Amino acid sequence: MKPPADAKEKFLELLAIIVRLRSPDGCPWDRAQKKGDIGRYLLEEAYEVLEALEGASPENVREELGDLLFQILFLARMAEEAGEFNIAEVLAEISAKMIRRHPHVFGDATVAGVEEVRTNWERIKTEVEHKGDKGSPICDGIPRSLSTLAKTQRITARAAEAGFDWTDAAGVLDKVEEELAEFRAALETKDPERMQDEAGDLLFTLVNLCRFAQVDAETALRSSLRKFIDRFSHIERELAARGKTPKGASSAELDRIWEEAKKKEGIS
Asked: Which of 70, 63, 66 is nearest to 17 (CA)?
C-alpha cells in the first residue's frame, strides 16, 4: 500500500506555513515561542490524541493528529533555525531506525511471532544502538516527563524482563492485599509520612498488577476518570433541575442519582 498521492504536497505545504509563521513578517506569538513552550504543547496534544482514540469520531482523531504533527514540525523548524538539525534529518534518522529494528521485514531475519519481534527490538536497541549502555540504570531512555503511572509500568516491565517478577497473578494479588493491610494500619496511626509511604507502595503494586494482566495502567485510569466525570456531571445536571447542588444533597440522593447514571451506561 502506497502513501496518498498528495501526501508529499500537503506535508510541504504545512512546513511552508510553519516557516512563514516563524519569519520576521509572520506571527509575533509564534516567533516568541521557546522550545520549552512547544514541549508543553506537544505533551498536551499527545494526550488529546489519546482521548480522541478512545472516542468514536475518526474526524476528531484526524484533527488531533494534525495538532500533534504541527507541534513536532514546529520544534524541528526551531532546531533548524538554531543550526542544530532539520526535518529531513529527523525523517532520515527515524526511517533508518525503523528499518534497523525490523530485520524480519527489511532483512533476512525470521520471527515466530509478536513476542519475538519485541525481543529483537530490545536486543537491537541494546546491542546495536546503545553498545556502551549495558550497565546503565533501569530508567535509561524513559522520558522524565512521562507520567509517574506510565513510568512505573515501563520500569517494572524492564525489571520483569531481567527476571525480577512474580510467577503468577495470584502472587501479585497477595502483594496487593499485603500493601492494603499496611496502608490500613498507617491510616490508624494518622502519621502523614507513613500514610504517604504506604499509599505509594499500594499504588506501585496495583500498577504491577495491571502490567502483569497486560492492562495499560494509564489507559485504565483515564477511562475510569472519564466515567467518573460523566456520572458526576449527570448528578450535577439532575440536582440543578431540582434547584440543588451536590453539596446540598443527601448521601442517599447522591447514591441514587449515581446509580441512575450507571444504568444509563448499561451498567447494573
From this structure: 70
Domains belonging to the chain, first-starting first, are 7-100 (1.10.287.1080), 137-215 (1.10.287.1080), 219-264 (no CATH)
Spell out the SS3 assignment of the chain: CCCCCCHHHHHHHHHHHHHHHHCCCCCHHHHHCCHHHHHHHHHHHHHHHHHHHCCCCHHHHHHHHHHHHHHHHHHHHHHHHCCCCCHHHHHHHHHHHHHHCCHHHHCCCCCCCHHHHHHHHHHHHHHHHCHHHCCCCCCCCCCCCCCHHHHHHHHHHHHHHCCCCCCCHHHHHHHHHHHHHHHHHHHHHCCHHHHHHHHHHHHHHHHHHHHHCCCCHHHHHHHHHHHHHHHHHHHHHHHHHCCCCHHHCCHHHHHHHHHHHHHHCCCC
Distances (CA, A) of 67 to 37, 50, 99, 139, 241: 15, 12, 27, 29, 38
The C-alpha cell at 26 is 509572520
Q: Which of 156, 168, 166, 172 is nearest to 209 (CA)?
A: 172
In whole angstroms, give the CA distance from residue 48 to residue 57.
13
* CB-count burial class (<10 Å; 0-12, 13-18, 19+) for 151: middle
pLDDT in tens, 182-215: 999 999 999 999 999 999 999 999 999 999 999 9
Which amino acid is it at 104?
H
Interval 7-46: pLDDT, tens: 999 999 999 999 999 999 999 999 999 999 999 899 899 9
